[in-house]
Amino acid sequence: MDFKLARSLLQEAPKTISLKKIEEAVDKEAQSFFYFDKENTHKQILSLVQGFEKKGRSVYHRVIKYSLDQDDYMYEVHIL
After folding, report:
1. How far is CA 76 from the centre of its chain?
2. Which pLDDT score is estimated for 52?
3. What region does 56 belong to: left with phi over 0, alpha with psi -120 to 50, or beta?
4. How far is it, in rounded angstroms, from Cα 67 to Cα 59?
5. Of 53, 63, 62, nearest in space to 26 by CA
6. SS3 per residue for the chain
7. Cα(74)–Cα(58) distance, integer angstroms
8. Is 37 exposed, middle or buried (0-12, 13-18, 19+ CB in 10 A)?
9. Which pLDDT score, from 0 to 100, does residue 11 have?
10. pLDDT in tens, 65-75
11. pLDDT at 70
């Protein structure tokens, strides 16, 4: 499964990252932060969270709104 990372500029297309790359990054560090683009569905983010929780990790996620516009948001996922 692939996820879209948050954009650094609104005009550019989001970059993708595979679940395997996320797992490798989490295995290297004690804790990891990931910021995902709004093009990911909430269901995809929840499946990511549940997958890491099944592996015994603590996972925190939230929606970050960065302007007053309802469509300007991203997902933050913190994996311990």
Report:
1. 6
2. 95
3. left
4. 25
5. 53
6. CEEEECCCCCCCCCCEEEHHHHHHHHHHCCCEEEEECCCCCHHHHHHHHHHHHHCCCCEEEEEEECCCCCCCEEEEEEEC
7. 20
8. middle
9. 87
10. 988 988 889 99
11. 87
- The structure tokens listed for 36 are 């995902």
Q: Which two tokens stand for residue 46?
A: 């929840």
Look at residue 49 in the predicted model and tell me its pLDDT.
96
| Rounded distance between C-alpha atoms, residue 47 and residue 65, angstroms | 21
Nearest by Cα to 49 from 32, 66, 64: 32
32 residue type, one letter? S
Amino acid at 37: D
| Nearest Cα residue to 3 out of 14, 12, 16, 13 | 16
SS3 category, 33: strand
Low-confidence ranges of the chain (pLDDT < 50): none
What gap in Å lies between CA 71 and CA 80, rounded to an integer? 29
